[in-house]
Amino acid sequence: MIKDLNNMWKARTWMKTNVPFLYSWHAYVGYELDLFEAFRRPVRVEDVADAYDLEEELLTQWVEVGIALKHLKKDDKNRVKISKAWKLPGSKKDSPSSGDLLKEMMELHIPSLLHYPELMKEKKRQHFDNEKHGSTVAKTSTLLEMLAFRLINQNVKKHQTDSILDIGCGEGGYLLKLAKKHPDMNLTGIEINEEVADSAKKATKDFDRINIVHRDIHEYEPNQLFDYVMVNNLLHYINPDERMDFFSKIKNITEENGIITIISPLQKAKYGKQFSSAFNSFFMTFDNLYPIPSEEELRKIAEECGFEQQSPFPVIREGGWFFIKWIKK
């Protein structure tokens, strides 16, 4: 009897603990199908099902969940409207947004983590398809830009930077922001994903001083040295055994007294340990993604490559994301 009561108590505790997942699931479906836009004004469920060509019973149930979660509300004419829009992801046309973060979590992170039992038993890893998921990851990286750009711009001014190389530039967000603030600066972005590189070229086509290169950094031979090299949201793509070679390559294309800044989650850091450990768990389900570094690992690489590492600065404390700065000696 006591054992049964204990099991029931545990079950109820887990149900309460996992209620937040319902909010994420509901918000993800709404974002993916643009339903929050559909219900921005009071409208009948059947009209939305018809306009969006959706299965009406499933839509009705999604609406019922939304009402229970207070994402939606119903009026006295049985019409449905979003509630507290500021809490919900916007339309896809508003990308990048929290909706992109939900999309990455629901389509990439959670499915990968659910494979953990199978992967451990079969002693194998998945393979990360950069062509398939690169665009989604690039959009979520853009959200990080909004918080990190201030730190980057401060260093541009402090070190009187004339040239910047952004390794893994994504869709060119940092470069665009820099070009608008510093129109005389020479800016180069290198991106390994062809689709993402093409998006960056389109986004930056009106800026003559931005050059986007579709290439692997190890195959890149620039005809200049750079004052400032950015390594943002990238180190989990690089095998720890190869990180020394990676940064040695960067050292050779960095001016004397130039700087490198790194944006990455850090292992066992002061802030965000829960999320950084979850990031690591996700990365390690793939045979071509790798553990995030620790502050000490980066410090050792910096010293061996001839850089001085300053204390990491938290960009997103709850997520364990840090801004790390190296100065070439």
UniProtKB/TrEMBL annotation:
Native organism: Jeotgalibacillus terrae
Keyword Nucleotidyltransferase attributed: no
Record domain Methyltransferase: where: 164-258
UniProt-listed Gene3D superfamilies: Vaccinia Virus protein VP39 (3.40.50.150)
Key word Ribonucleoprotein present: no
The name this protein goes by in its record: Class I SAM-dependent methyltransferase
CDD domains in the cross-refs: AdoMet_MTases
GO biological-process terms attached to the record: methylation
